[in-house]
């Protein structure tokens, strides 16, 4: 067949035909506006960096240690991994069919059926973006707290006259971290690909280093029996029922493997998107689950006295992982500097995780604005000359900072950010899966990656798991319930649901029709 030479400015139809990714995006109703420069490795690296189990395990370790202790963490991890795997498999299957930056809310619109599509898309989108903002807030604020603990231990510890930063100083550190992340995310996508790959490498290499170093340094180590069978009951919580304690303790494992929807949000910038996106989701979850468990076991080998690690009067101010590492190196070498280096490795991983979170937030915000779902969408739905959604990057930074202002009033209320980041995002994960196994059970057209006849079964297991953890993580975390131990998760999740449905009934239902095509399909 003879091929005629044409101008470099190809008509849209010809360009789409020459590029399968552009053609598929065109079929889904969108123009190619973001630069498609990510490989499957870069897509995976971004999700792996956002999941960052080294960060997730470290900052929520106190929760796991207090509620159930070693057994709730080391064995509970397996249960969470199994059911998280079902969620990831279902999401990967849907991602393969609909590789767009909108991800979850676009999927809900396509799977819920014509009558329910706008409402399903609206609620899913708001749960997703609020959950992402909360995740960025919890990660970067946790980094600020970790920096504060490193400074505290480096200057002598709480009992040695060390510097304990005020809540205002911690907030200022947090603000500086957010600004740096905003500046990095204002760079072209090839730089973000590099940061994503660095994050993936740092998480994997950092865990391997710590897993080898921790047992080698520790003079006193917990027995295997203790690590895998010891059940801790903290009398201070007022909870004695073991099943209840175990359920609350699972938050650590559930929070530690979250954020893999980033692979879906980056599909419009990923080559071979309908295959690379699903692979990014699955490989990031699988490797994170393996690396996370190994790291968790290594950390728990340092646990020989749970009450002392959780004591707010210890040198680390009750930060269990920091105290354990500092003590291990101090006993071996007479100085805790090595422990501070280990905490520095975790801090860098957390920094790279927060940076990747802003990347994912901004792509979700860009897509949601493209469909006019956000206030002032015309402002956020813009890309600069480097094809970066610059305005919505800084919106993500600003919202995350405002969310952290709750820390000035109530640390308990702020801690709920971890829960809403977990529950809110998993609700958003589950909604399109619900529609996949109900309204679209027979009409769903799979992409290159699919689960075949097991798709519906796996989907139902995923939905049941998300429903269960939503209830579990909304339960009181201490009795009697008081102002200083109140679990705000149900309030925040209910608030997002009420606001999204309320704005739909009062306003959005009159104009929001779901994803808006910007090409002639």
Automatic annotation (TrEMBL):
Keyword Transport in record: yes
Its subcellular locations are: Membrane
One GO MF term, please? L-glutamate transmembrane transporter activity
GO cellular component entries = membrane
Transmembrane regions listed in the UniProt entry: 40-63, 75-95, 116-135, 141-161, 168-194, 200-218, 281-303, 337-360, 388-406, 412-435, 456-479, 485-506
Q: How does the record say this protein sits in the membrane?
A: Multi-pass membrane protein
The domain of life is: Eukaryota
Major localization class:
membrane
Q: Name one Pfam family in it.
A: AA_permease_2
Keywords (A to Z) from UniProt: Amino-acid transport, Membrane, Transmembrane, Transmembrane helix, Transport
Looking up Gene3D superfamilies in the UniProt record yields:
Amino acid/polyamine transporter I
UniProt lists the family membership as follows:
Belongs to the amino acid-polyamine-organocation (APC) superfamily. Amino acid/choline transporter (ACT) (TC 2.A.3.4) family.
Q: What is this protein called?
A: Amino-acid permease BAT1
The scientific name of the source species is: Panicum miliaceum (Proso millet)
